[in-house]
What we know:
The complex is a heterodimer.
Chain A (H helix, E strand, L loop, with lengths): L19 E3 L6 E3 L9 E2 L6 E3 L5 H21 L1 E7 L2 E6 H5 L8 H30 L8 H11 L5 H15 L4 E4 L1 H19 L2 H10 L2
Antiparallel strand pairs in A: 1-2, 3-4, 5-6, 5-7
Chain B lengths: L1 H4 L10 E3 L6 E3 L17 H23 L3 E5 L3 E5 L1 H10 L3 H28 L8 H14 L5 H12 L1 E2 L3 E5 L1 H19 L3 H8 L4
Antiparallel strand pairs in B: 1-2, 3-4, 3-6, 5-6
Bound molecules: zinc ion (ZN) (2 copies).
Amino acid sequence: xxxxxxxxATPPTLPPLxxxxxxxxxxxxxxxxxxxxxxxxxxxxxxxxxxxxxxQTFAQVIxxxxxxxxxxxxxxxxxxxxxSAGGIRHQSSIFDTALAFSEGILxxxxxxxxxxxxxxxxxxxxxxxxxxxxxxxxxxxxRHARRAFRLAEAIQPWSxxxxxxxxxxxxxxxxxxxxxxxxxxxxxxxxxLVIVVTVKDNLLCDWTLWKAIDTQR
Amino acid sequence: MxxxxxxTLTARAAGLIGCRACGRVSPGDTSVCPRCGGxxxxxxxxxxxxxWAWMAAGIICYIPANLYPMLRTSTVATGTAENTIxxxxxxxxxxxxxxxxxxxxxxxxxxxxxxxxxIAALAISLRGRATMSSHRRHKLLExxxxxxxxxMVDVFVVAILSSLVQLGYVVNIHPGPAAALFALSVAFxxxxxxxxDPRLIWEKDQGYPA
Lengths: 217, 210
Ligand SMILES: [Zn+2]
Ligand SMILES: [Zn+2]
């Protein structure tokens, strides 16, 4: 990326603002990456990734987002883990897990856990589908597409499906000596979901998407 | 100080304002990004005030989260036992589950404390002369932003154990108040790291007032 140099104290005459990008991490002003570029574009000062060229990714991200939604719906209602000890069996789904805190003052925590592992991951893929669907077909973006994509990006750190899977593994180890545990179909669905989410998030390039929202009419 | 040898122009120095969410450049007095609708804040010290506020909330929740029980286990044989965060780690060590004990200790103790120290140090470094380069401080902030959410692991462990281990008279596990306090502490420190505007680190380096 070429930065705009300012040897003198007074700013030089600037090109039109749409042709510029300010690095979101360090504020360096640069010429915006062109969508034809074949290489990753990084900020020349802080090396923040600005643009990653990928071909045909809108269709792929749509397919992967749909997969995530289907796996999540399956994972919520099928049995997640089954425990048996002393002749007693007990099954729990992800839904039950979120409701573990539903007694007394811990009730709000139930809502939060449900949001972190089910609602926010689902909301994120829904917003991505809403933004990408018309763009992938070369049409103008739907109403509020900008707000939808910004929200999808803001949700990302709060969507914690992969952390939940690590939590499940830790719980299994803790119970290993105490009881017999059987992994249910939802356990595998959730594990697969985490892989699909990771692949999908790696395919998505913010700059390409913002450019498409800006230019497609 | 590479940036001093190659003078570069930031959006702010050009009298413009850049969007932290999408990179769009707007005239300096714009308050809402025309591309993504995000808020544009000309005063970056507001970002620091928010960092300190979320940090304080995170620490206030973290201390009692370590004192109250995370889990209550009741069995016929031994009665009711209560486990704090550290108690859970010690139990895993006694069971010789070194790897998992390490994961829980890192997620629940090391990461939160490292995060409090690192973010405070980064915020303080903006005032005086920093001992680390902007590159390294920026990297540190990115790492803190990335690993903070993994502290939520223990909350999920408690949720899974208490929903699964409901075996009538044999054994039952119930969550303790520390689970909620710890979840709040993790959320607050995540917000602290997200509020930290990395551009402050670079501006200081360039000699622009923060
Ligand atoms: Zn940069
Ligand atoms: Zn923006």
